[in-house]
User: Fold these one by one.
Assistant:
Number 1:
Amino acid sequence: MLAAFAAVGAGWARPPTDVEKQALLATVEEFKTAFGANDMGHVFGMTSPKILDYFSSSTGLTVDQLQKQMQAAWDDVQKRVSVESFRMDADGVQYREMENGTPYALLPTETIMILDKDGHKQRVAAHSQTLALLDGSRWYLMRVDEPKQLTIIRKIYPEFEKVEFPAGKLEALD
C-alpha cells in the first residue's frame, strides 16, 4: 500500500506553471528594488513566514521588531561595506522539485562590494545561489550559502534535508 502511495506521489511532481514563473520574476524584481533602496526590512520580509516565525519564537521578538533590527544591522554594515552592484539572474534560474513534487528554484546571485577595514579598501565579488521557495502560491527568497542558514531552512522545511546547495564563494577583485 505504501508503495502505491509513493508511486502516486512521484506522479505529482511537476514543474512550475507559467503563472508561477511570472510570479517568481515579479518577486525577484521586488527584491532587487528593495535591496537597491537599502530597505532591508522589506528584504527580510520576503523570507518565508515559517522562517520568520521561527526567528520570532527563538528570539522572543515580533516579526516587525526583527525587521527593524535587520534594517539597523544593515545600516551598521554599510559603514564598512558599500554595494557596488547586485544581480540576481532570473535568466539563469534553475527550476527543481522537492521529493514531494513542489517546485523550487535557484537563482545565481552576485554582489560586488567594497569592504573598508580601517581605511584599507578591498573590492570583492560574492557569488551564491538564492533559493526561491514556493510555499502555497507565493515565492519566498532565502540565502543558502552559509551552513547556519541551511540548518534553519532544513529544520523548517525537512524536504530540503537531502538537497545539496552550491556553496557560495567570495572573490577578491583588486
Number 2:
Amino acid sequence: MNKAIPVLKLPVDFRLSLSIPQGDLYVSPDRGLVYGLRADAAVGDIVSKNHMVEMRITDAKTKRHTVDVGPGECDVLVVNPQGTISINSFTSSLIGGARSICVVGEEDLLVIPFTLVRGFKIIYGQPDVGVVISSPSRERVLKILKGLKPDIVIMNL
C-alpha cells in the first residue's frame, strides 16, 4: 500500500558536505572494524552492534544491502525514506526511554534530530573508513536543518 510521508528532504548538492565526517573520525590500524567506543546513541546496524550506547537506531541494512545483525528489539518503529528526515522520525526523537528505534527505509540522517532534540553524542559509520563520534553544536544542527526542503514522499509499505 502506498503512503504519503511528510519529510524534510536532503538536496542533492547538500549530500557532499554531509558525506564529510561531522565529528571525530576513528579508524582501526588495520582498516577493519572499530570496536568499543561509547556514545549516547548509535545510528547504523554495525555501529550499534560494536559499540556501547544507550540507544540504537537501525534499519537492517548496511551500504544499502540487507544485513542480519542478530535479533533486534524495537521500542519504536518509524518510517523514514532514503535521503530524508520524516516527521515521524523527528517526532520519535522526542520519545524518552526508547532504547531501540527500528527504521523502515533509511536511518542515515537521523543523527540530525537526535542531536538537536536531545543533545546526544552520536556514533555512526563512515563507509569504508571507520566510525565518527559527533556532538555538534545546536547552531550547526539548525544550519543543516535549514538546508533541508519540505516534501512529500510516496512510499510502498
Number 3:
Amino acid sequence: MPVRLVLTAAVLVLAGCAPAPPKVNAPLAPRAASATEASAIARVEAAGRAIYRQDQAAQRARDALAAQGIAIPLPDVGGWIITELPQGTRVSLFVEDADAVAHVQADVLLPPPGKGLPQVTTAPARAPDAAEAAMYRARQTALANADELCGAAFGTVILPGAEQRWDVYLFPESDRAKVIPLGPLLRFDVSADGTRLVSSEAYSKDCISMADNDAELYVRLENRTQGELPVPMDVFLSLSYPKPIMLATGGHLWLVENGRIKPKGP
C-alpha cells in the first residue's frame, strides 16, 4: 500500500535577526489551545516521549553489545524489540536465519536509572514470546512497505496502537557528526499479528537535514488543514536534537521544545 502524504516540509533556519516565519494559509494569530486540542496534545506528547525512550534504549543496547564485539545486523534482517519488565527495560536483538526465521541473538537488560549497568545475555535460551514475535513481524511489514528511506541508516520504534494493533515509526538516524536528519518520518498502522498493513502516513517524505549549530528551526507544513496539530515525531525530534521547533499548521503556529507542545504567536 502506498504511503499517504500528510505534509511536505520546507525547512527554514532562523537565527539572530532572521525575518518572522511566513504566513501559511491564514494569519498566524496567537491563541490558547482548546480543551479538545489540549487532550490531543497530551497524547501526541506521550507518544513522542515513548518513541524517544525506545530509541535511547536501543542506542544504549547497541553500545553494550559493541563493547562485547557483537555485530549489529543490517536493518532488513534484524532489529530491536523492546519490552518493559519489572526489573527494567529489555532490549532484544532479533536476527533472521537463512530461512528468514527470527530468533533472539542477544538480550540487554537496562536497569532503572541509578540501579546498575546494562546486563548482556548472548544467545539466550528462550524463544520470542507472542508479543515480541508480533512486534517483529509488524516491523518487517512496515519495512516492506517503506519506499522513502533515502538510502540512509534508519531507526524503528514499535508502540501499541489502536484496537490492539501496532504503530511502527521509521525515521533516519544521523550517520554524520553535527547533522540533524528531519525526514523522511513515517508511521505504519499494522495488524495485531504483525502481518497486515492497515494504513500508513508520511509526516515528511522528503530527505531533509540541517546542521546542528543552527540556532532555531522553523518548518512550514503544507497540506495540513486549520486546527491540525504537531505529531509524535515532532516531539521525538525536539528531544533527540534539543532545539526549538516551530510548526505552522493552517493558521496556527506551534512551538515544540523539550518534548512539549504549546501555541506560539508569530
Number 4:
Amino acid sequence: MPTSSFTCSPIPVRSASCCFWGSGGATGRTQRAGNHRLERDGSPVPAGQGPLRVSHGALDCTNNVELFVDTSSGTWGRTVIDANNGPQSTTLARLGTLGNLLALCGLPSRQDAWSQLLTFDRSGMGSTLGVAQSLARRPWQGAGALFDLFDKAYPAPVTANPEERQSEVTYLPYLSWRPEDFALSLKFSGGGVYSAGRISFAADGTMWSGQNWMPGSQAGAIRGIGGGLAALRPDGSPLSPAITGFTGMGIDGVGWGTAVGEEKVWLSSFSSTIGVFDLQGRPLGPAQGITLDGRIGQGQGIGIARNGDVCLTQNQSQRQSVTNSILRRI
C-alpha cells in the first residue's frame, strides 16, 4: 500500500510516533505529520528527514508505490486514477479514508481519536506507521471498527453545501459505508488481455496468461478468434503487444494451459498444438507448433514437473506427456 512514501516534520503534539504520507491529494491542501520517535527497520529516523521510503519485510513494494502515489508531488499515482480504476472501484476512497485516519496525529483537536487509532497497531511499534503496516499485512482485521473511528472523528455535516461537506477532511474521496477490508486493489489491461485462462507468474514477477479469445472480437464458445499469450510486467504495464498478445507456433486460443518455468512459457491451445516461448515472448519451436503427430486434442491444463517433463490435459484424451527429449529438440 502507498504507505511506502511519507513526509515527516515535527509538530507540537505529545511525545509519540506519528507519520503519514504526502500532500492533500484531491483537496490540494498539505498536511505535515509529527515524528517524535519514528523507527524504520529498528533504527530511529530523525524528524524532518523528508521523503521516507519504507522497505520493511512484506511491505517492500517500492516498485508499485507509483501506481498509487506520485512520490514527487504526493498526489495520486497514474494507475489508481485511470479509466480502469478511478471510477470503477473504491480504492481511491479507501486511500482517502486511510489518509484521513493517519492524519489524525497532526490534528491537536483530534488527539483522542489518534490515541484510538494507535490501538490498531499490531506491530509493536506504537505508531501510525505501525498501524499502516498492520493494515497492509491484514487489511481485513478490524476494518469495520477502523471505519467507525473515521466516521466518528470526521462526522459528515448534514448539508447540501459541498464545501462544508469537504472542509473537515484532508483527503478526498473517502468511504461512506463500512468496507469488508482495506485492501487496495488495482485493475490492469492491455497487452492482449481479454479472457484470461490460467495466470502464472515468473520468478521476476511478470504475469503470463494464455487468452481464450482475442480482444475486440465477437468470439464465443461456438465460433471466434482465439487469443494469444499476454504478459504484464510487475508494475502492471504490458510486455506483450496490444490485441494479439504474443503469437506463434499455431497458438489460437488458450484455456487453462499456461505454465511458466525458469526459462520458458508453455501453452496448450484449442488449435491442438503446444507452444513454447522464451521469457521475452519469442516462440522457440516450429511455426505449426508441437503436434505430436496429431495426437494432441484441444489442450486445456498444462504443467511442468520437477524433472522438466511437461504434462498436458485435454478434451479428447486423458493425458499426454512431453518428455525431455522433445524439450531438447526445441
